[in-house]
Amino acid sequence: MRRTEQGHGVHADIWQEQARLARRLLRWGALNVATGIALALHPAGWWRGFGAQAAGWGVINAGIGLFGLRGARSKADQPQNHTRSKQREALRSLRKILLINSALDVGYIAGGLAVARTKGRESDIWRGSGWSIVVQGGFLLLFDLIHALLLT
Amino acid sequence: MISRLFNPRWLHPEGYHGGDKRSPYFEGWYFKIVDRTAHHRYAIIPGISLSTAGGGPHSFVQVLDGVSGQAIYQRYGVDDFAADEVGVNVRVGPNVFTWDRMHIELDSSDLRLHGDVRFLGARPWPVTPTSPGIMDWYTWVPRMECYHGVLSLDHGLSGTLTAGDTSIDFAEGRGYVEKDWGQSFPSGWIWMQTNHFAIAGISLTASIAMIPWIGRAFPGFIVGLLLDDTLYRFATYTGATTTHLSLTEEVVTWRMQDALYILDIVAHRADAGKLRGPSRHDMGRPVPETLGARVDVTLRTRFGDTIIYSGTGACAGMEIGGDIAPLLRS
User: Fold this and answer.
1) Suppose A141 and one of A105, A149, B23, B305 were both cysteines; which one would form an S-S bond, judging by CB atoms 3.0 to 4.6 Å apart?
2) pLDDT for B267-288, tens place per residue?
3) What is the pLDDT of residues B14-34, one digit of tens each?
4) Partner B contacted by A124 (CB < 8 A)
5) CATH H-level, domain B2-329: superfamily
6) What is the ipTM of this complex?
7) Residue A146's closest chain B neighbor by CA?
């Protein structure tokens, strides 16, 4: 008998999973704020644009991470959120949010490319900004997609 | 490490990992079975040691009688051992172990144990490509001293074993399965496991050990608490930390926390039997183990202080082995 036929579905506590995702996003955000600010001081326009955009996205991602962490703490504090049905419901909901975000991330990448190829033709700063958006969108696409697929 | 990505063995902690290994190497599957009355408790461990010292490579079945503390080590040849790389299908001599049953034929001078026990509804630790089991991404790290897998946190039992002249009915009993493989047990470790709480289906497995790492060693821990099919994980790799660990003759007291929860464990020790564990040389390392410990567990939220679960697990397996001073200092 195979394990999947035989076994019950054990899944990780969804609030711990949400907190872990939030902390990862928070760390990514903090890293981008720090490096973005450093790059924004670079003499070359491309790097200034890239850095400023990264710092801006970093602030937003860190904010979302903090919000997610607070949400996980608040949900975990309520005993009724630890039943199997609530856990499964929250898992489905989190996976859905991550998949919707994945679609949005594709939009960010496309938007970043468009910025780099339109406004970027005339300005190094805009070209750097555009590519920075592509990097942010690319990271978020991987982040959202991988977590959506691997949530247990 | 890259080759591991394409090697299905690493997505199957339950399977045999030693097909291409040489000395020192061991692999053992740990089957704990407890009958409905808890008057009969056994740990049955089939395995293989490829170490060239200590009598050379051999396979074995160890049995710990958790009530009397008697332990036997039945030795077999390497050719008497067979195991699949995917799934649980282990044969040592006439003894067979699979996902859903064990068949035992042991005739030692100290213990005669015969019969079949079925496993009902195994609850394995979740396995994903990025987290292939209880060791998470550490599973991908080559040449770790000891790998660990939890194959079923809790399951029901049926069937009968005959120990000597005593027939033991395991219907409505509870079981647990885990395994270890690698070069040696750690230099020091504390391990405990119980799935005998007031409500069936609750299970705790907890271990902390010194982990050799890039020329140094750190105390790594892995704890899983299963409640209503939800697994609360506390581990070095999840970012959880041990905030207190102490040991007396009577109890082990352990507190850990992560971003959301605090988990308190107070484990009441009990008389132990002596199993044999792997060192880098042989299977001669004494491993004191009991199946009669009692573990108080409390899971609470870290900021709201809401108690998610509080209870006591009986018939707990517990080992305190090797040099544990570095664990207590950490």
Assistant:
1) A105
2) 999 998 999 999 888 898 889 9
3) 999 988 888 899 999 999 999
4) no
5) AttH-like domain (2.40.370.10)
6) 0.89
7) B130
